[in-house]
Every structure is written in C-alpha cells, then in structure tokens.
Design brief:
Strand content of chain B: over 45%
Oligomer: heterodimer
Shape of chain A: globular
Strand content of chain A: over 45%
Low-confidence stretches of chain A: none
Structural class of chain A: mainly beta
Radius of gyration of chain A: 13 Å
Radius of gyration of chain B: 13 Å
Largest sheet of chain B: 6 strands, mixed
Shape of chain B: globular
Order of helices and strands of chain B: EEEEEEEEEE
Distance between the termini of chain B: 40 Å
Mean pLDDT of chain A: 95
Order of helices and strands of chain A: EEEEEEEEE
Mean pLDDT of chain B: 96
Helix content of chain A: under 10%
Structural class of chain B: mainly beta
Number of helices of chain B: 0
Low-confidence stretches of chain B: none
Chain lengths: ~110, ~120
C-alpha cells in the first residue's frame, strides 16, 4: 500500500477543469514539499510540478499544484486529449528516509 | 543535454543476481545525488535507493535492504545497482534519476524479470 493516497482514476471532458488529490501524513506531505509526475504510456515519468506549486520550464500553465496540511492537489484546466496519462504525487518521507509515491491516478479525457 | 541511460536488465531466476548500470552525460555527475526508482508492470512507482554525490550517504527502501547495493564511479559518470537474492516481486522496470527528490531527469528504464 502506497504511503500517499491518490484516487486510482479520474476523467473529464475536453476543456473542463479537473483536480487530482494526494493525501499523506505528517512524516511526508505535512513536513515536505510535494512533486507531481506525468507518465504517458510507454515512457518514463516526467516532472510536472515541483515544490508544491512550481512548474518546470516547458510545462503549460494549465497545470498547477497546491498543498495544505497533509494533502496536496494537482489541477488541470482546459483538459486536452494529450493529458491522458498516469499522474503520481511524491514527497520525502522521514520514516523511510526516502521518497514515497502515490499509487497513481489514471486520467481519461472523454 | 542531460542524458541517463540504464542497462543490465534481463531475465534472471529467483535467487539470482543482476547488476544495473546508469550512464550519465550532459551534466557534472559528481555534483548530484542519484536515485533508483522502479515500476512494477502495470503498477506504480517505488523508490529503491539513493546515493549522495560523493557516495558517502546511501539509503535503501526496506523492500531491498540487505539485498541491493547502490554505488557510483564519478570518474566514469556511472551509477550501479547490484541486485542479489532476487525475488519475483523485484520484477519491474528500473529507472535511474538525477537528484535526491524532484526528479527532473529520468532514464528510459531497464526491465528486470525474475522468473524460473
């Protein structure tokens, strides 16, 4: 069982806004920043959001992140078909002395 | 440009060993922490291990502690993962990634299959 909890699936129609949640604990999200990764089929994960709400160069501003307490969220506005992918949250965890990932959320654009 | 290339994956019997390599280029390898992350078929990501820039600090996930050994050769820009006493549950795509967290750069992954 993942240390971070995400919904296994999410779906939305093109152009709509969607959020994916990520729930943790005081040993991870509650104490450290959250990163989000996007994984397209057959490819390596790609860093989408770092330090809770920062976008790496090249990531569209349709993607945004936030954190409150021991939970975090990834928001995608203006959904596009190419956003169909798996999304993972991750954070440092004190009890692990390593990174914990969420179980991933498979996004379907209807 | 930053490039990470894993190699060494393959089919191995339970109890066997395998050594993965990660060749780095496009950045000053000796300045960065490096990590191994794996992904089981059809499932999620699991952090495996990391090593500090000098190699002096190393941590492992409990699931591999005592069986896997991470190391690096800064002169050759290479990182390794020696995997011993392999189990079926170690079957996964193994990725190397730059940094301790916030992995901006990943390799393409190498598949390790543990099966008799």
């Amino acid at each position: 069982q993942s240390a971070l909890t995400q919904p296994p699936s999410a779906s939305g129609t093109p152009g709509r806004r969607l959020t994916i949640s990520c729930s943790g604990s005081t040993s991870n999200i509650g104490s450290y920043t959250v990163n989000w990764y996007q994984q397209l089929p057959g490819t390596a994960p790609k860093l989408l959001i770092y330090s809770n709400d920062q976008r790496p160069s090249g990531v569209p501003d349709r993607f945004s992140g936030s954190k409150s307490g021991t939970s975090a969220s990834l928001a995608i506005r203006g959904l596009q078909s190419e956003d169909e992918a798996d999304y993972y949250c991750a954070a440092w965890d004190d009890s692990l002395n390593g990174v914990v990932f969420g179980g991933g959320t498979k996004l379907t654009v209807l | 440009q930053v490039q990470l290339v894993e190699s060494g994956g393959g089919l191995v019997k339970p109890g066997g060993s395998l050594r993965l390599s990660c060749a780095a280029s496009g950045f000053t390898f000796s300045d960065y922490y490096m990590s191994w992350i794996r992904q089981t078929p059809g499932k999620g990501l699991e952090w495996v291990s990391y090593i500090s820039s000098s190699g002096s600090t190393i941590y492992y996930a409990d699931s591999v502690k005592g069986r896997f050994t991470i190391s690096r050769d800064n002169a050759k820009n290479l990182m390794y993962l020696q995997m011993n006493s392999l189990r079926a549950e170690d079957t996964a795509v193994y990725y190397c990634a730059r940094d301790l967290t916030g992995y901006a750069y990943w390799g393409q992954g190498t598949l390790v299959t543990v099966s008799s």
